[in-house]
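Appendix C: a fully annotated inverse folding record. The material below is reproduced so that readers can follow the format used throughout the book. The structure is listed first as tokens, followed by the designed sequence.
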């Protein structure tokens, strides 16, 4: 089901296809270390040759410890070429579930690279070329806009996992399917409402993957396929998964990475989004300020996702 099907003369392996097209410059902004979906999103980005990952930023809460987690992950998969930058520290309502994994990377070896300043420097270097993939709260993004809104507007686009337009969090009950839960404040928006408000007022093209389209369950069959694969990347996912300590991951964040690579995974609709002071992301009349995916096909997503992590 998950193998690559190659028709002679019509298709090429993923890496060969990427070699024939210009790579997309991306920066990933992540609160990796709490929920496990950030790690699965990073894995997808690393296994996608269409992307030129310029930098990965740690975001929200204990950002130096998140950066240590990123450094350990990237060293383990032999991608030390990707710089890690540390975002601004904030208060957080919970500790990192994957703290022990992060602490294995020596704190003294953590590069002194500021996420906000280095991201702005990269935007100046590549104006109009960079996609910022935001899969955490809007702490770094809000700080970038505050510091230099003109440079921030030189991003090609921002692709985010965040918000809830019509559908809230599924609770794992029959009622979710009979009567989908109503929209509610989503984690990334709630953790920094002012930062989210500044983003949606920034004028940068926004591609938004809300709860409506990102509640993608990595079931037991798919988990076992990945966890027994025994590649450097899947081995790190195994370690992080068991430290996370829950059963079935919901791959919210990988959809943002997947969309950046293949927009057909989550077709978008231009609408006007207002982030209110309670953290709701409400559709309202007005000039569209975001391209929002309101529906996705879970099977289509996993047919895209699984071969990339199983290809070698």
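Designed amino acids, in order:
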């Amino acid at each position: 089901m998950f193998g690559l099907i190659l028709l002679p003369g019509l298709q090429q392996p993923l890496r060969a296809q990427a070699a024939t097209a210009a790579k997309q410059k991306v920066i990933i902004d992540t609160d990796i270390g709490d929920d496990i979906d950030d790690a699965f999103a990073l894995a997808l980005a690393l296994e996608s040759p269409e992307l030129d990952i310029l930098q990965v930023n740690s975001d929200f809460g204990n950002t130096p410890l998140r950066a240590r987690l990123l450094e350990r992950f990237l060293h383990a998969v032999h991608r030390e070429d990707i710089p890690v930058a540390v975002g601004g520290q904030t208060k957080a309502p919970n500790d990192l579930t994957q703290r022990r994994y992060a602490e294995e990377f020596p704190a003294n070896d953590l590069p002194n690279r500021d996420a906000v300043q280095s991201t702005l420097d990269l935007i100046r270097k590549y104006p109009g070329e960079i996609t910022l993939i935001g899969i955490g709260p809007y702490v770094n993004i809000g700080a970038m806009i505050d510091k230099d809104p003109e440079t921030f507007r030189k991003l090609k686009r921002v692709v985010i996992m965040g918000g809830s337009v019509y559908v809230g969090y599924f609770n794992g009950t029959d009622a979710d399917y009979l009567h989908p839960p109503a929209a509610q404040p989503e984690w990334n928006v709630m953790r920094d409402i002012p930062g989210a408000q500044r983003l949606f007022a920034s004028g940068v093209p926004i591609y938004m993957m809300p709860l409506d389209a990102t509640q993608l369950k990595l079931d037991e069959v798919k988990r076992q396929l990945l966890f027994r694969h025994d590649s450097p990347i899947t081995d790190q996912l195994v370690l992080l998964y068991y430290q996370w300590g829950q059963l079935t991951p919901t791959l919210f964040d990988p959809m943002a990475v997947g969309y950046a690579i293949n927009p057909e995974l989550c077709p978008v609709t231009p609408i006007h989004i207002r982030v209110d002071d309670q953290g709701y992301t409400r559709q309202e009349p007005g000039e569209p300020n975001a391209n929002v995916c309101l529906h996705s096909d879970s099977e289509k997503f996993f047919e895209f996702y699984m071969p990339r992590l199983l290809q070698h």
